Amino acid sequence: MLLRELRARRFRNLREIDLRFPDGPVLFWGDNAQGKTNLLEAIYFLATGRSFRSRNDRECVAWDAPPDEAASVAGQIERADARREIRVVLYQGEKRLFLDGKPLARLAELFGELNAVLFTPADLQIIQGGPSARRRFLDLELSQISPAYLAALQRYNQALRHRNALLRGGRPLERIALDLAPYEAIMAEAAGEILRHRAAALEDLGRRAARAHAEFGAGERLEISYRHFMRNDGADAREDVVEKYRSRLEADRADDLRQGATRSGPHRDDFLLTLDGRSAQDFASQGQQRSCALALRIAEVGLMEARRGEAPLLLLDDVGSELDAGRRTD
Amino acid sequence: MSKTASAMETLILHLTKLPSVGRKTAERLAFHLLRAPKEDALALAEAIRAMRERIRRCSICGNITEDDPCLICRDERRRSDVVCVVEDPMDIVAFEKSEAFEGVYHVLDGCLSPLQGITASDLRIDSLEKRAREGSVQEIILATNPSVEGEATALYLSRLLEPHVKKITRIGLGVPMGGSLEYADARTLKKALEGRTKVE
After folding, report:
1. Which residues does B107 contact at the CB level (< 8 Å), separation at least 6?
2. Which of A15, A122, B32, B107 is at 20 to 30 A from A267, Cα to Cα?
3. Domain that holds residue A49
4. CA-CA distance, A260 to B162, in Å (whole number)?
5. d(CA A18, CA A34)
6. Domain check: are A166 and A108 in the same one?
7. Number of domains comprising chain A
8. Are the beta carbons of A162 and B148 separated by less than 8 Å?
């Protein structure tokens, strides 16, 4: 997959940019605050419809842009099977997506058009950060390769929000039991699908990451294990958990009501990285953690290529420190 | 103060309250009504007034109607023992256009949404339960939208009505007729596969 052209208007500090890219790797170098990361952010926006740095799209609009002018990013993508133009327009707090000039009704329709993997110094957070950083990594990877996963995830999250709204509604359990059941059924169905995808992806990522890690010359063995939401119920990640999870939600109602939140489910999933059986988060040095993060990203590239039949676009931000991590473990 | 004459401004403000009408469109519509023959403009005003005075809800199904009960509920050729549950009166219009349904309807006036604070008591669910309890309904078809909210509403209703009605069905969800499979999204295709039928 290649990016042939990139146009950006008022996207962060990229006031007006028109670029054509040659075959082969492209390198940008320059002083700080010139917009190198913003350029990668703009490209990543085309792949995922959102920023990797901020949850708020407004932050991506140039701060001094007049309010009636739109910020936009457009890219010409060359894939094995087709050429595509993706355009994202941010205008007065709204985001509009276009594929070959036609508006897309949903963000989900954008996923898979441009596959990109981003390497950034912030990847260290996947190892050092909380479970949400690892779920985010997994969700962004899987959403790009499986529309079915993204659909299940969106359904799950929507049903979860409704269930939590009922739990926080201030009504006693006997009054909301009948209302909870439909959302639990939808959550369970979606959760079964999410678990299946995550388990398969993590198994694959684990193999690939271990291989990459070994190639750095690191002595320790890297392993990834899925800490899924049904493991305390004795469920295997490969079995069909729909009915078990639905029963779990039903059994948890009283406790969840006290907490005002749903405590078990894919929204609490995590995965663990270990070096020779010891948690990389707790016991590895900063350098070792960097090589784990890098191995994970390389594994992501491999999985994406295997599943999409084409290598993704690689976006490497400030990559000196990352590649250094590979050497440092020599 | 606005630069527009105040009667004009009042009309524009009312027009902007309409769905998908912004300030610009409202101004264009208002000036169009000003330039149009006076009878045409007044006929529109009269049509709106007459519609609001004459249209009411059917006391049985909740459809919009001038006469209560509505034409569909009064039609003796239709099967009153098969009830199709829809979210909105506009859904009835869609079903009627298809000429494929011979039963009667029940309008919910929306679907359950705890996030927006919409509960069973905000919808026309009591009257549906009452219809089901009366015992003459043989089948209830749940035709809420295939959104998370519509699905949850269908599940809720099926549990609620199960003790009173023999047969509760959900409309088939899947690939649109005349469409192309390659444009269907993954979930639609999955649903279509799950709901596959034997070729007769």
Report:
1. B57, B61, B62, B63, B86, B87, B88, B89, B91, B92, B124
2. A122
3. 2-114
4. 30
5. 16
6. no
7. 2
8. yes
Q: Is A177 on the interface with B (CB under 8 A)?
A: no
Q: Which residues of A touch B119 (CB under 8 A)?
A: 179
pLDDT, tens only, B64-90:
999 999 999 999 999 999 999 999 999
Please indicate, yes or no, whether residues A82 and A185 belong to a single structural domain of this protein. no
Q: How far apart are the first and last CA of chain B?
A: 71
Residue A159 belongs to a domain with what CATH number?
1.20.1050.90
pLDDT for B4 equals: 66
* Cα–Cα dist A284/A291, whole Å: 10
Q: Are residues A149 and A265 in the same domain?
A: yes
Q: Are residues A9 and A63 in the same domain?
A: yes
Residues A151 and A279 in one domain: yes
Residue of B nearest to A106 (CA): B185
- What is chain A's length? 330
Domains and CATH numbers, chain B: 6-54 (1.10.8.420), 78-170 (3.40.1360.10)
For chain B, list residues whose CB is within 8 angstroms of any CB belonging to chain A.
Answer: 112-115, 117, 119-120, 148-149, 151-156, 159-160, 185-187, 190
Q: pLDDT by residue (tens digit) across A181-238?
A: 999 999 999 999 999 999 999 999 999 999 999 998 878 999 999 999 998 887 777 7
Peptide bond before B69: cis, by omega within 30 degrees of 0? Answer: yes
* Chain B residue numbers touching A179 (CB-CB < 8 A): 112, 114, 119-120, 156
Give the residue from A114, A145, A160 where a domain finishes: A114
Between β-strands A313-316 and B56-57, what pairing exists: parallel, antiparallel or unpaired?
Answer: unpaired
Cross-chain Cβ contact A169/B149 below 8 Å: no
Residue where a domain terminates, one of A73, A98, A114: A114
* Tens-digit pLDDT profile for residues A153-182: 999 999 999 999 999 998 999 989 999 999
Query: Within 10 Å of residue A16's Cβ, how many Cβ atoms?
Result: 9
Whether residues A107 and A139 fall in one domain: no
Instruction: Assess whether A270 and A154 both reside in one domain.
Output: yes
Tell me chain A's radius of gyration from C-alpha atoms: 21
Yes or no, beta carbons of B151 and A186 under 8 Å apart = yes
A147 and chain B in contact, CB less than 8 A: yes
Q: Which of B117, B155, B190 has its CB closest to that of A185? A: B155
A291 and A310 housed in the same domain: yes
A158 in B contact zone (CB under 8 Å) = yes
Half-sphere CA count of A283, side-chain side, radius 13 A:
10
Q: Which one has a higher pLDDT value, B105 or A240?
A: B105
Please give the ipTM for the structure prediction: 0.81
Question: Helical H runs in B55-147?
Answer: 71-74, 89-98, 126-133
Å between A76 CA and nearest CA of chain B: 22
Q: What is the CATH number of the domain that holds A103?
A: 3.40.50.300
Q: What are phi and psi of A309, to 5 degrees?
A: 75, 15
- Search chain A and give the residue with CA nearest B152: A182
CA atoms within 13 A on the CB side of B81: 8
